[in-house]
Amino acid sequence: MKYSRNIGMVVEMPKQECNDIKCPFHGKLTARGRHLTGTVLSTKMRKTAVVEFERLHFLPKYERYEKRRTKLKVHNPECTNAKNGDRVRIIECRPLSKTKNFVIVQILGHEKGFKEKMEARESAKVADKEKEEVNGQRRE
Q1: Region of poorest pLDDT, from 63-77, 80-94, 122-136
Q2: Are strands 64-75 and 102-110 parallel, antiparallel or unpaired?
Q3: Could you give the domains of the chain?
Q4: What is the mean pLDDT of the chain?
């Protein structure tokens, strides 16, 4: 088992090589800061993935926590090559673009029920749009 140079956390070196300068393993990118674990929602952009993770937000009035979701755009190096539905570990780095400040360093596996969850969210969006159309017609 090969380990990488010190990237700020102990992770396995990817099996595949890459020539990406923005890769923490094979390039010159130094990773520092926050470590997060999330699910890849989309990989439609080139070398970029959208990762979502849940966090708890405290409501002082009710003295309880609520779940909130955060989406981040992260760099997806060629050697890691994460796909939709993968659980990934990401680490903060210097700004790579206007919106990218994180890089994927490890794939932890595939999330169970990912496809069903995405279909449920899509159907909920369609239902919300239909409600808005009906309410908009009644107001006129």
Answers
A1: 122-136
A2: parallel
A3: 31-111 (2.40.50.1000)
A4: 89
pLDDT digits over 10-55, tens only?
888 888 888 889 999 888 888 888 999 999 999 999 999 999 999 9
- DSSP states of the chain: --B-S--SS--BPPSS----TT-TTTSSPPEEEEEEEEEEEE--STTEEEEEEEEEEEETTTTEEEEEEEEEEEE--TTT---TTEEEEEEEES--SSS--EEEEEEEEEPTTHHHHHHHHHHHHHHHHHHHHHHHHHH-
How far apart (Å, rounded) are the C-alpha atoms in residues 90 and 102? Answer: 6
Question: If you compute the radius of gyration of the chain from its CA atoms, what whole number of angstroms results?
Answer: 19
CA separation for the pair 48, 72 (Å, rounded): 10
Six token digits for residue 90 = 């990401």
Q: Which residues contact 39 (CB under 8 A, 6 or more apart)?
A: 51, 52, 53, 85, 86, 87, 88, 111, 114
Alpha carbon distance 28, 89 (integer Å):
19
pTM score: 0.82
